[in-house]
TrEMBL record:
Swiss-Prot/TrEMBL keywords: Carbohydrate metabolism, Glycosidase, Hydrolase, Polysaccharide degradation, Repeat, Signal
The protein's Enzyme Commission number: 3.2.1.8
Catalytic activity: Endohydrolysis of (1->4)-beta-D-xylosidic linkages in xylans
Protein name: Beta-xylanase
Family the UniProt entry places it in: Belongs to the glycosyl hydrolase 10 (cellulase F) family.
Annotated ranges, domain GH10: 1-332
Domain of life: Bacteria
GO terms (BP aspect): xylan catabolic process
GO molecular function list: endo-1,4-beta-xylanase activity; polysaccharide binding
Length: 336
């Protein structure tokens, strides 16, 4: 498929990215990645468990090759993620005696010091190479009356972990765009909770530059109208918006499982990509990048989540061939 158009040459309104875990930078995958995408997000390599597995012992062995590839191909890099409740080693939340932290002033100080040390090291290692950071990931829980997820970060420090994370990230990476990233922001209650938090923190002077919408969607959900409402909600409050982890599952519920992707689902998926990208390109005000959560269907988190089954949520199939989904983005007249 050497002759097909490059996604990034067709979609010029914003950088188009892909999440990568390692295999994507080798041989044919690497050629496909560099041809079609202008941004990459390490899918796991910059998370806490990968970069600081033991206290104050930093390693960039997973991330460095991915970022070197991006630099060699003049691609932007989205750093993902500095503070999250998942993929964070247990030691982070253990007190001086090795016991699980309870909410005391002493533990709060220790946890914030660990957070600051982590961000200072990781963000400084990459400097301006990483143009955007998902500083905080998935901090909203709309089922709580205040909308805030009861992670260990929150129960031990309140909102101070967010204040510390953004302040330190700004200090160490002064040119980077600093994002707060979350999923299901196309759901009104969720985006309202995120909106309220962002407005509150920005009002205090916390340096949040950007709201990231993950966009893990499926062939039936959400509507374009809800997706547009998601973007409109954050207009005019002084943030950029980015689509950070888009994929379009062929499944509409956890009970389904297909041995191979059915043709009608792949067609429906192509129309979702078509309509979503049409919205993104029309809605240009403050939408500054769109990233897909993977390069091709041979490496997707959806093959194991929510159950083990073969999904096919991306633009290229398991043999790296362009799918109808690709044509949905590049030239909808060729879908099918
Ligand atoms: O590293 C171990 C490896 O040593 C072991 O052999 C293997 C066996 O299962 O597991 C490996 O760890 C896996 C890791 O990915 C690296 O491949 C974990 O089990 C697995 O749970 C982990 O999944 C990642 C998931 O985040 C975990 O939270 C996915 O790859 C990654 O795509 C996904 O990404 C998240 C975003 O960060 C945030 N938004 C949602 C998105 C999808 O869940």
């Amino acid at each position: 498929q050497a002759g097909i158009p490059s996604v990034k040459d067709v979609v010029t309104e914003f950088p188009v990215g892909a999440a990568i875990t390692g295999a994507e930078i080798t041989t044919v995958h690497g050629d496909l990645l560099a041809k079609h995408f202008s941004s990459v997000t390490p899918g796991n390599a910059l998370k806490w468990d990968a970069t600081e597995p033991a206290e104050n012992s930093f390693t960039y062995a997973q991330a460095d090759p991915l970022i070197a590839f991006a630099e060699a191909h003049a691609m932007a890099v989205r750093g993902h993620t500095l503070v999250w409740h998942n993929q964070t080693p247990a030691w982070v939340f253990q007190d001086a005696n090795g016991a699980t932290m309870t909410a005391t002033a002493e533990n709060k100080a220790l946890l914030l010091a660990r957070l600051e040390n982590h961000i200072r090291n990781v963000a400084a290692h990459y400097g301006d190479t990483i143009g955007t950071w998902d500083v905080a990931n998935e901090v909203i829980d709309e089922s709580q009356s205040d909308g805030l997820r009861r992670s260990s970060w929150y129960t031990i420090t309140g909102l101070d972990y967010l204040r510390t994370a953004f302040r330190v990230a700004r200090e160490v990476a002064p040119h980077a765009t600093l994002c707060i990233n979350d999923y299901n922001t196309n759901v009104a209650t969720k985006r309202d909770a995120l909106f309220n938090l962002v407005v509150k923190l920005k009002g205090e002077g916390v340096p949040i530059d950007c709201v990231g919408h993950q966009m893990h969607v499926n062939v039936n959900w959400p509507s374009i109208a809800d997706t547009e409402a998601m973007l409109r909600k954050f207009e005019g409050i002084g943030v950029e918006q980015q689509i950070t982890e888009m994929d379009v599952s062929i499944y509409t519920g956890s009970g389904e499982s297909f041995p191979a992707p059915p043709a009608d689902r792949l067609l429906a998926q192509a129309y979702v990509y078509r309509d979503m990208f049409a919205l993104f390109r029309r809605y240009r005000a403050d939408l500054t990048s769109v990233t897909l959560w993977g390069l091709a269907d041979d490496n997707t988190w959806l093959d194991t989540y929510p159950v083990a089954r073969k999904d096919a949520p991306l633009l290229f199939d398991t043999r790296l061939q362009a799918k109808s989904a690709y044509w949905g983005v590049v030239d909808p007249s060729k879908i099918g």
